[in-house]
Amino acid sequence: MSRPLKLIAMVAAMAVLSVFSSFAQAADGWGIEGEKVVRYDAKVVDILCELSGDCPANCGSGKRQLGLLKDDGTLWPVVKNNDPFAGAVDDLIEYCGKKITADGLEIHNAKMKIFQLQFKRLAPDGKWSRANWFTRNWSKRNGAEDGGGWIWEDKTVEALIAKDGVLGVPGMKPPKE
Amino acid sequence: MRGFWGTAVGALAVVMLLIGSADAAAPKRIKVTGEIIDTWCYITEIMYAQGSAHHRCAIWCAVGGIPVSIAGKDGNTYMVLKVEGDSQNVANPSVLKIQSHEVSVEGDLYERDGVKYLIVTQVHDDKGVINLTHKEHGVQP
Questions:
Q1: Among candidates B46, B40, B25, B27, which has minimal Cα distance to B77?
Q2: Please, what are the domains in chain B?
Q3: Residues 89-118 of chain B whose Cβ lies under 8 A from any Cβ of chain A
Q4: Interface contact B79-A77, CB threshold 8 A
Q5: Which chain A positions have a beta carbon within 8 Å of B113's beta carbon?
Q6: Domain ranges of chain A
Q7: ipTM value of the model?
């Protein structure tokens, strides 16, 4: 095979792989008791609005916890995205009132049923994106290149720990590691 | 005439029953004492997630927008959606300050699909961080 043909074949193969991997994108299990890997279409709702009728515009514009309302009426609170130590409101707010395809984990726990979002797209055939927009937005807000270490650089975290300490009790020090 | 009244009373009874079932979705006023916890770590048990051992992580998670709950002494876990009229429930500054605290609150409970949601109408007591779990568990994570 000539060099140009090889190059074309490689590019074509990469394009096919890219399409396939996008289609095959699916949540990873975390080994959590009661977890179930799921993918389904559901409407993004403001949980407080859904329960009590207290409904600000645009699902609270990022200040309200959001949930997935399935066609059968089941409401799942989305408590976590795929970023370290972060919720999923940044990932969901632009879909307020719209139906998305949510890919993630249902955690079936007797204390509380919760959802962890790993990928999402506008239903039925929008473009998939990873549920990692908390760190994406945090980086933009803070002029950082990478939000992966946001917990060590965030000013609000810094102020709270400075005030009450790592243990939450002013003056009390953690044990030496 | 007696037949008419019998039918009317029957119809009224059905209406009352229907009203009763609609009330099942209405909130219930409760009082709860428990610890303010990070919902994700506590429910999934991916690490030890109570008291002073987990305080810093609870701060991270609350600032990161993970819902805050109360691990009640009654054995139930309540996801907090509103506190004393303030309906910001993502990284609410006043709630960030009370992570890992033991609180006694009163509020309206909504139960739906395996979740107990709490709208706190009044915080009666805040004892601060009194669950000193770091002695046994160190600092998590």
A1: B40
A2: 28-137 (2.40.50)
A3: 89-91, 96-97, 99-101, 108, 110, 112-117
A4: yes
A5: 74-76, 113
A6: 32-145
A7: 0.86
